[in-house]
Amino acid sequence: MSEITKDLHSEHMVINMGPSHPVTHGTVKFLATLDGETIVDLKVDIGYLHRGFEKMCENGTWQQVIPYTDRLNYVSPLINNVGYALAVEKLIGIDIPERCKYVRVIACELSRMADHFTNVAASGLELGAFTAFLYFVEARDLVWELIEMLCGARVTANYVRIGGLKNDLPDGFKEKTVEVFKKCRGLWEDVDKLLTKNRIFIDRVRDVGVMPADEAIAWGFTGPCLRACGVPYDVRKAQPYLVYDRMDFEVPIGETGDNFDKYLVRMEEIKQSMHIVEQALDQLPAGPVNIDMPQYRWQSKDDIYNRIDSLIFHFKTVIEGIKPPAGEIYHAVEGGNGELGFYLVSDGSGKPVKCRVRPPCFPLTAAMPRMMKGRLIADIVPTFDMINMIGGECDR
Amino acid sequence: MLADLIESIAKIVFIFSVNLGFFAPVLGWVERKQSAVMQDRIGANRADIFGYTAIGLFHSIADAIKVLCKEDFIPTGANRFFHTVAPFVSLVPAIATFSVIPFGGSYTLFGHNVHLVIADLDVGILFIFALASLSTYGVVLAGWSSRSNWSLLGGLRASGQMLSYEVAMGLTIIGVIMVYGSLKLTDIGAMQADFFRWGIFMQPLGFILFLACAIAENKRAPFDVPEAESELVAGYFTEYSGLKFVMFWMGEFLEIVTIGGIVTTLFFGAWHLPFVTDQMLLSFFQFAGPNGAVILAMLVNIATFFAKVVFFIWLQMAIRWTLPRFRYDQIMRLCWKMILPLALINILITGLVVLLWIK
Amino acid sequence: MVGVPLATLKPKRVRKNIELTLWEKLYVFEVLRGLFITTKHFVSNMIGFVIPPKGEKRSIFTVYYPEEKVTLPPAYRGRPVLVAREDGTAKCVACGLCEKICPACAIAIVGGETANEERYPVKYTLDMSRCVYCGYCEEVCPKEAIVMSSEYEGLAQRDRRNMLYPKEKLLRSEENVKGRIEYIRRIYSKCSY
What we know:
The complex is a heterotrimer.
Chain A: H1 2-7, E1 13-17, E2 29-35, E3 38-45, H2 53-59, H3 65-70, H4 77-92, H5 98-126, H6 130-151, E4 160-161, E5 164-165, H7 173-195, H8 199-205, H9 213-219, H10 224-228, H11 235-238, E6 251-253, H12 259-283, H13 301-306, H14 308-320, E7 327-334, E8 339-346, E9 354-358, H15 361-366, H16 368-372, H17 380-387, H18 391-395
Antiparallel strand pairs in A: 1-2, 2-3, 4-5, 7-8, 8-9
Helix pairs in contact in A: 4-5, 5-6, 5-12, 5-17, 6-7, 7-12
Chain B: H1 2-38, H2 58-68, H3 80-96, E1 106-109, E2 112-115, H4 124-145, H5 149-180, H6 185-190, H7 199-202, H8 204-217, H9 243-267, H10 278-284, H11 289-322, H12 328-358
Antiparallel strand pairs in B: 1-2
Chain C: H1 6-9, E1 11-13, H2 22-25, H3 27-50, E2 80-84, H4 97-101, E3 107-113, E4 119-127, H5 136-140, E5 146-148, E6 164-165, H6 167-170, E7 171-173, H7 178-187
Parallel strand pairs in C: 2-7
Antiparallel strand pairs in C: 2-5, 3-4, 4-6
């Protein structure tokens, strides 16, 4: 056979899974060099969704950045908001009230649930399980209804402020949460029964996209992909922020780092997030949700309408922006994909000098060629899905 | 002579109108609506005529109008002849295979023997397999002639898959043929008059294997790698639009009906109601006179047959929307390493049982 | 490895029980279980079409827009509108805060003074193609003059010039947005601080 093929003029086919392709959601380009169906080489091209987040931050004030952070990881916007606000508060050196911390935890976990629902649904869709996709989209829609009740918009939340929140929890939130979680748990069971022990699904995702733990750390993996490799690292446990040290939750750890482990880790994290939200709602203390420092947090409308000094201060803060002290800070939170870090540089004026985001899915996308060499082209689909590359976050 | 001609024309007209006029448009509606109800949504129901939406049935008409108005293009550099011929080669076997499937038994009507099947061939089953093999050419030609990398990958995958599953499909049927002792589909159908002689009780393993092979031959999920939407955009028919695209789709839907027909005939008692014989039917309809009774019995049998076919269409749609998709090498492994040995074991066991017991 | 004691870390191995038994290795039984789940949804939804659960039209949670509309929560941020006094003029005093805070630079104000030396906006243009519905303009307004209504329909236009909404198109009477004004007074009140 090899003597015959020696005389055949054969060449590798270069195929372009371009920015508009059903599987590259998030607009990324793969240049795959194929030998039949085996991938010989894979080049990843990102940047199709680059919108200049960092430059826009330099033009706006510290408060105006918050709607921009909504659009970074657009399936879990509240986590981005919380990460940025925590970083700025760390820079200023203020501490927020207890109730605000609990409500921020609730918001983060709801967003994380939405993120994981979206990811597992999209993976199911691209592997052909349309029904699992639609069940989880229904569950995600119910979670979005909760978020809409909280802040008024489903995806572009713009909920967290520096030094507090936009508003407190609305009435009837706890009852609606109970109702929504009951439905979500039912749908979770359905999708679990449809996919987890299904041999067709397992054959597609097991032993595909394997990453040994030390290489994963060398590449810079964090989040569910790192935990799937067996490394027990979760920012909520390693460097607890907000009130995560008072919450009782488990961290799911995988074994080999293949796609099946990533899927199982994400499914288990959905359940843990629901548990955290229920605990937070139980332990919620009464009290204010904003700090009473007019130079960092816009004042209440009662004050602005009635007191002239509040009005003057309000004008000053809005037009010039809040003024954190000069310095630089890095703060990381656990995003849906991993460690979402904000590196802020301030020079004491109302506009940030630099606002860099450490996107958790950037090293994951960079490791795609390493995971894909020698596999079939059909393996790109589950691997790329399970990485959960969000274009807004990777390209900013 | 004239009676024979009238009978044949009536049967052809009936089957063609049922197949092309009823099943092809309605199956599109069924696919949309069934998947919608399974997935907790409503489905497409907005197309209306003067404000009357018939729960979405008019979408088929809307689709037909849309398809006829589309531009029909051939990509530059593509092989024009094969690009045009491929949908026909794919569609014609799907329509023609239904001609050997009996949708009722044999009756005596007006002194004339009526067999409710368009063509009562002696080789029955083999005719279906022969025509189904021809549809492979359509897929391969479509993939090759489109001059696009994606179509090529889809066409190559399809050729390998369809050829392998034809082999396996032939072997799974041998058990049924051994039990009933005939290739003629009318004979197999007639022999299932007794409920406990239905094929499903005789050949349960054969039924499962045959259903898997038939769905794979039809390129429906979970075996739809040639047209895998997420990997290959649309696989071998990426470069088709308008009427030619619809011809591929119609071929697929009509093959679903054909598979339903074959499974019913071989395994589920063809046109017989369980525990009801032809004599009971004729005596039940005595009030209408001898010819009327025969006509009514014919109608009952035809209705039973199509009800069973509808159930299998529903089952294939449900399987499509439930299961994820195989990878290409897993499909090949499934065929050659699992279905084929199981089919051979099935033949062995069936042979032993036939020899020792049924004799 | 990370300096967190295992008791606080609480890892949970997810893969322990997922080795397939022989029963599951044969595809058929898991396929039947999957079919059972989808058929259960199918049957319950079909019954829900005929006998809907009490209080609702059908058991599927799809809302049949535009015949049926979703009930929006009070927090919903729709299109920004200007609040008008009883005589039809805008409450806005053209202070320029909303123009400064808008992250998308969608608002353009030209201010002036009336004969009574009160400020008013001579021209107030909101570029709806830029607005991101963040709600900042409502939050900083010191006069309750701009609020986020619950309108979400009729926002698409065929010409980009029609997306520059002038003051006349933005005005709404005070009863129209009364619910929203009460809402913002409640959430931005002193009790949250």
